[in-house]
Design goal:
Layout: E1 11-15, H1 20-30, E2 34-39, H2 57-61, E3 65-69, H3 75-86, E4 90-93, H4 107-113, E5 118-123, H5 137-144, H6 146-150, H7 163-186, E6 191-195, H8 196-203, H9 205-214, E7 230-235, E8 241-246, H10 249-259, H11 272-277, H12 279-290, H13 295-305, E9 309-311, H14 322-326, E10 330-334, E11 340-344, H15 368-371, H16 378-381
Parallel strand pairs: 1-2, 1-4, 2-3, 4-5, 5-6
Antiparallel strand pairs: 7-8, 8-9, 10-11
Helix pairs in contact: 1-7, 5-8, 7-8
Length: about 375
């Protein structure tokens, strides 16, 4: 960006691991904040070494950060850390309730030294009866009904991405930006919290109100009644799969014209309400007509007609997605083994500019000399 980044000049200290906290720190870093990730001595953040479904956590969520190593069990190091926090605008942490308080790193202790400090705790639950439970993204998906709505009846299924962890981190960013604006007016920082369970509950808002309005329990998404007649995944002649949505009566007219199949020009399907009522017969009929065509031909038809569509992609297809590659939607980071890989940018744009990578993934303690040395005194070393 040619203009200063939105959060340039804001210093953030990040105590976090896994997904929720690192997401929050990464978004702040992408927006221009100086994010200093505090890692334990030795191997650093244990998220660096996860395998299988956790292997992408660290490289996916830790760009635009600096890394320092501090032993919070050492009194001298702890004092250096406090001095560092004295220079900060924001602290973010996602450890168990009270975990940092025991080391003198809770909000009350730190704000007494730095009254302008904004302190964000990213938790499983906001204050209440569940506050001290251990939460995971999967736990709160079960608890809030998201897994119930995602899987087939009787088979609750978690979403295929850590949606609550990542959104919880983003809500933390929203809270921080609001608190920064309040600090401009009051001169005072404050303690903020963002909850994993409350995030999952927020995601279920529309489903809750659907039940309240109808008086009927909505069925899980795979079995539920859709609001639109044609809104489904269809097989194609060449073995592909494509989602097509026809959500208005005008789109239905266009769909009929483009497909050119007279059997669909039936009064029973004239309105979206009627089509939705007859999905059990309409969807198999549409499937029998679409399977005559290759997926590329259907994509061309839908794009020409302005109909919502997408072939069924896998996440790794995004590495070569032409839209992301053309508009700055993919950023490059260096993996721990030295290879380069692409990762999606934040889904926002400032004027003509996307937010990019200023700092590659940090090595453990890469910025110790830059950040910590000016804060240490001879007595610390002693």
């Amino acid at each position: 960006m040619t203009a200063p980044l939105p959060l340039a000049g804001i210093r953030v200290i990040e105590f976090s691991h896994m997904v929720m906290g690192p997401t929050c720190g990464m978004v702040l870093g992408d927006l221009g904040a100086e994010v200093i990730k505090v890692e334990p001595p030795g191997k650093g953040d244990r998220t660096r070494y996860l395998i299988a479904s956790g292997a992408g956590f660290f490289p996916g969520l830790n760009r635009n950060k600096k890394s320092v190593r501090i032993d919070t069990e050492d009194s001298g190091e702890l004092e250096t850390l406090r001095r560092l926090i004295d220079t900060a605008d924001v602290v973010i942490e996602n450890f168990r309730p009270g975990g940092l308080d025991a080391r003198g790193l809770g909000y009350e202790a730190l704000s007494a030294r730095n009254p302008r400090l904004i302190y964000l705790s990213l938790k499983g639950y906001l204050p209440g009866p569940y506050e001290n439970r251990t939460a995971l993204d999967e736990v709160v998906q079960m608890q809030a009904g998201l897994a119930y709505m995602t899987g087939p009846p009787g088979r609750p299924l978690r979403a295929g991405a850590p949606v609550n962890d990542m959104m919880g981190g983003m809500f933390g960013v929203i809270a921080i930006m609001g608190a920064l604006r309040q600090r401009d007016a009051t001169g005072q920082g404050q303690h903020l919290q963002s909850g994993l369970f409350e995030n999952a509950a927020f995601l279920m808002s529309t489903t809750m109100l659907q039940q309240a309005l109808s008086g009927q329990d909505p069925l899980p998404m795979p079995a539920g009644r859709r609001s639109w007649g044609v809104y489904d995944v269809f097989d194609t002649r060449d073995g592909g799969q494509i989602f097509i949505g026809v959500v208005t009566d005008r789109q239905w007219e266009i769909f009929l014209r483009e497909l050119g199949e007279p059997v669909l020009d039936n009064p029973d399907y004239a309105t979206n309400t009627e089509r939705a009522k007859r999905r059990e017969t309409l969807i198999p009929l549409v499937q029998s007509l679409l399977v005559k065509h290759d997926i590329a031909a259907l994509e061309t038809m839908c794009e020409r007609a302005g109909l919502p569509f997408s072939r069924i992609a896998k996440p790794w297809d995004l590495f070569d997605d032409p839209h992301l590659k053309a508009n700055g939607g993919l950023l490059t980071v260096t993996l721990p083994d030295g290879r380069r890989a692409s990762v999606p940018a934040l889904p926002i744009q400032f004027g003509a500019d996307r937010l990019g990578v200023r700092l590659d993934l940090p090595r453990i303690g890469e910025h110790d000399e830059e950040i910590l040395s000016p804060l240490r005194t001879p007595s610390d070393a002693a």
